[in-house]
Amino acid sequence: MEGTYVSSKGQVVIPKAIRDAAGLRVRTRLKVTLKEDGILLTPVRAAAVDALYGRFGGQDLIADLEAEHWTEVQRDSEIGARRRESGLRGSPRRQVQRGLFHIVIRRFSLAETIHRLVSL
């Protein structure tokens, strides 16, 4: 059994052999519990986010995100070009709204149309 002491600042030095056996490294957080027969020091597991720190070092994640973004932009512009070629403008929902609006305007007077639109 190895002994240690408490400093004037309340710090305790854990002997190296015990630190190595317990897997304690620098900055390892410990939970301190007072027991009837002594003090129990229990290592506190790091948060999942802390475990990821430095894991993706050396990888250019921004370049991957930019490449994915530009692929989506290109795909969206191709879809828009196809829609323009077919004569469609706006989203399908907006087209339905426009169509209903035109039908309502042609079928009813202006006052009736406004009343019907407000009541939707």
Descriptors:
120 residues, mainly alpha, two-stranded antiparallel ribbon, 2 strands, elongated
Short description:
The chain contains five helices and two strands. It is mainly alpha-helical.
Structure commentary:
This protein is mostly helical and 120 residues long. The protein is built from five helices and two strands, in the order H-E-E-H-H-H-H. The chain has helices spanning 16-22, 48-52, 61-85, 92-107, 110-118; strands at 30-35, 38-43. Strands 1-2 form a two-stranded antiparallel sheet. Helix 4 crosses helix 5. The model has no long low-confidence stretch (mean pLDDT 78).
Uncertain segments are none
The strand count comes to 2
Q: Biggest sheet, in brief?
A: 2 strands, antiparallel
User: How many alpha or pi helices?
Assistant: 5
Strands of the biggest beta sheet: in what spatial order?
A: 1-2
Helix content: 40-55%
Backbone CA Rg: 34 Å
Kindly estimate the percentage of residues that lie in beta strands according to DSSP.
Answer: 5-15%
| Molecular shape | elongated
Q: What value does the average pLDDT take?
A: 78
**Succession of helices and strands:** HEEHHHH
Q: How many angstroms does the end-to-end distance come to? A: 82 Å
Structural class: mainly alpha
Write the layout of secondary structure elements.
Elements: H1 16-22, E1 30-35, E2 38-43, H2 48-52, H3 61-85, H4 92-107, H5 110-118
Antiparallel strand pairs: 1-2
Helix pairs in contact: 4-5
